[in-house]
Specification:
The protein starts with 6 loop residues before the first helix and ends with a helix. It has helices at about 5-15, 20-35, 50-55. With about 60 residues, it is an all-alpha fold. The protein is built from three helices and no strands.
Length: about 60
């Protein structure tokens, strides 16, 4: 059985895929780092355990 979306559901579906301000800023920062316009001070990780410790503020 095919589900037909109502207007509210389709609006919610679309707004989830439109970049918000936080996403837009993250993309701009990533592009600036890639272009060398700002310093990329993001640490690199070679394993998930260290990454998770960093994300959880344990480092």
């Amino acid at each position: 059985m095919k589900k037909i979306f109502n207007h509210a559901e389709s609006d919610a579906f679309l707004t989830d895929r439109i970049p918000n301000e936080t996403t837009r800023k993250a993309f701009e920062e990533a592009e600036a780092k890639e272009a060398g316009e700002i310093t990329d001070d993001t640490p690199a990780f070679d394993n998930v355990s260290d990454l998770m410790k960093y994300l959880n503020g344990e480092v």
